[in-house]
Amino acid sequence: MNTNLTGGLFKLKFKALGTVCEVQFRAASVEIAKEFRKLALGWLRDFENRWSRFKPTSLLCRINAEAGRSMVDLTEADEEILKLCEHTFQISGSLNDPTSLPLTSLWDRAGKEDRMPSSGEIEEAKNLISWPAVEWGDGRVFLPEKGMALEIGGFGKEYAVDRLIGFAKRLGIVDCLVDLGRDVAALGQPPNGPVWVVGIEDAKKEDAAAFRLAVSGKGLATSGNGRRFRMIKGKKFGHIIDPRSGWPAENDLLTASCLADDCLTAGLLSTNACIIGKKEGMEIIERSFGVDALFQTSSDYVYSSNIHRHVLGS
User: Fold this and answer.
1) Is 252 within the bounds of a domain?
2) Which of 114, 118, 163, 273 is deepest in the core (most CB within 10 A)?
3) Which pLDDT value is given to residue 290?
4) What is the mean pLDDT of the chain?
5) Residue 296 lies in a domain
6) Residue 89 lies in domain
7) Do the strands 253-260 and 247-248 form a parallel or antiparallel pair, or are they unpaired?
């Protein structure tokens, strides 16, 4: 843990959830800073160990391995994650389905093998996707069909951002910026300015900021296919899958950046916009209380009506 002695700013830099993370905060004492560090890193370690699909010993992998076979026991904390799965499924209008891993895995294999999935493979994977079919509650969960599989990649990092902000509030930390792989939330202000300033990467120009946003008391998430994609037969296919078609989402929206009262909501709305496109995506955002957004498309920028309150000059 490094301390900026001039500004009294504590900084944590670490890797978690498959990405580079940074937390900056001011605390009333070194003891409080150490307690926050212990809470944040301990919770992230436990969360990843139980819910990462890349850890073979995780609870998530055990749930998936028992699909079509048997129930898996859950703790009370585990059930909270399944409640989040239900929440994200409902708020996204079923576009964020936690059982969508068969489709993700199919397209990941296609990218590695440099071949297009067949229509039969896509339909087979789609038939395994059904969050409403999952049986859960009373400390247990069951995926009823062999081959079904859960994943929480659609909201895991954003949820983790919100949890770390919650730990900061619990310890009386009023100035804090949490950045977990560019999913962000902020409280208060930094030592050298009135607001935390977060850059939005230019979707067409690597390592360049298209916008600078003032963030305080908000969560910020950016989704898009501009940087993350699969190459198959010389063509780019974005990493965001539309569960309705079974194909990677394809429209002129390169990235969607959303500001909301929490990072989880911001992430869900930004990802949804990348699936349904700029027109419908922005209409939903404009109807959502306390949410603002800016989209980068292949030809222009699209703004929510109140985003100007957060955009800073260059």
Assistant:
1) yes
2) 273
3) 92
4) 92
5) yes
6) 59-142
7) unpaired
